[in-house]
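User: I'm putting together a small comparison set for a docking exercise, and I want a reference complex before I start. The sequence is below, and the ligand is GDP-alpha-D-glucose. Could you produce the 3D structure with the ligand included, as structure tokens?
Assistant: Of course. I'll restate your input first, then give the structure tokens for the complex.
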Amino acid sequence: MATNGSADLVIVANRLPVDRAYDDDGTPSWRRSPGGLVSALEPVLRNNDGAWIGWPGGTETGLESFTEDGLRLIPVALSEDEIENFYEGFSNATLWPLYHDLVAKPEFHREWWDAYVVVNQRFAAAAAEVAAEGATVWVQDYQLQLVPQLLRELRPDLRIGFYLHIPFPPTELFSQLPWRRQILEGLLGADLIGFQLAGGAANFVRLVRQRVGHRTNRGLIDLPDGRRVRASNFPISIDSKGFEELARSESVELRAAEIRAALGNPERVFLGIDRLDYTKGIHARLRAFGELVADGTLDARRTVFVQVATPSRERVEQYRLLRDEIDRLVGRINGDLGRIGRPPIHYMHSSHPREEMAALYRMADIMVVTPFRDGMNLVAKEYVACRYDDDGALVLSEFAGAAQELRQAWLVNPYDINGVKSALMLAHDAEPRERTRRIRAMRKQVSEHDVSHWAQTFLSELADRPRQG
Ligand code: GDG
């Protein structure tokens, strides 16, 4: 196939790993926004003459590809209408709630779907242009589920992988989607489709059998054109070593002590850190904590809850409503139960540098992670990685993907408020030996299965897929 492309490995993700920043006189520049995905893929990208395709945020058009800190970045522009219909609409108000067990009601609008198709075509065209003959393209997440098929039509010579970061729902829920068949066929353009958990892969395979009618055998799907697609689970992780090193640094230790002092040196600190999202169960956990203080089980002079909620998807209505709900709940608990200088909940609706996150993890006695549904939940793993002192306790929802690996957490059903209250108290009252036994086992799991292990496993399995066509 004639192509002017030159990258041997192409990552296609909704967002680029950089944000637009403007200095005082309005001159634009790029600011790196490194997450776990970027740090895992960076070495692979560098070693493979790789490129990263994504939306840079905003509505700027005519942006050329550029190299930032040795990474080749290729911006895909979105218009204001596309941000509304493709991103806020179909991605975040249709797929996100549908894939998270209908924690909120998904909306189905034909014009949102139309925008989803157009934007997926644009990403596929960009990948087709930059990929070298026979290159590997790895497509990320729920915003781009049509890209594998669209790209295969343009470039049958490529090896295509897809990874879904969020849960893949049970068949009954997915079947509500008016465009269910198109999404399944879109994904089947890949040679390898990765999910967080085995259950998500099984849901997908069952749906393909039921709705598309292809023959399946465990994780293998046979297509009429002779291709064989594999669906499997690859639980994502974090840069465990990087987090531990950060946690061990003197500045982070100092900051951790400083935060505890600012809180009034309480005996016990509970901590929650989440994007402000209705899937994360923030309201339920604060309610459980508030009841424990109200009924006298916990004493607000000795115990505090620190909740960081990072601003997220602020233009989507359900997120605005959630923010108001949490503001009200925190206001009520602090108003009813707080004393001068002693609010039971310290609530911050803001984002923080990585060092501050590590300091928060270091200073917290009990980390509380209670999503109603979560693909994995990296916060739980980050907390564990930072506890090199073999102390600390994790209360974790059964419905987070991480619960499959972090078995020694205090596992809870977040819908059961009394159950959450008991788990908070069990973690609060646990003997040091018990805490050490549990955190040590979890730390072993997280350090042996880090994000580069995740990326390597996926990419080597993709490389092992038989050549198609
Ligand atoms: C999706 C899936 C899956 C948060 N606030 C700040 C900040 N963060 C960082 C955390 C963590 C990441 O953001 C959040 O990751 P999670 O996994 O907890 O949740 P989602 O954002 O919903 O991620 C999830 C993940 O994709 C990966 O596949 O695990 O299930 O929903 O790394 O540390 N980082 C900084 N400041 C903040 O204020 N620097």
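DSSP finds 16 helices and 18 strands in the chain. The radius of gyration is 23 Å.
User: Thanks, that's exactly what I needed.
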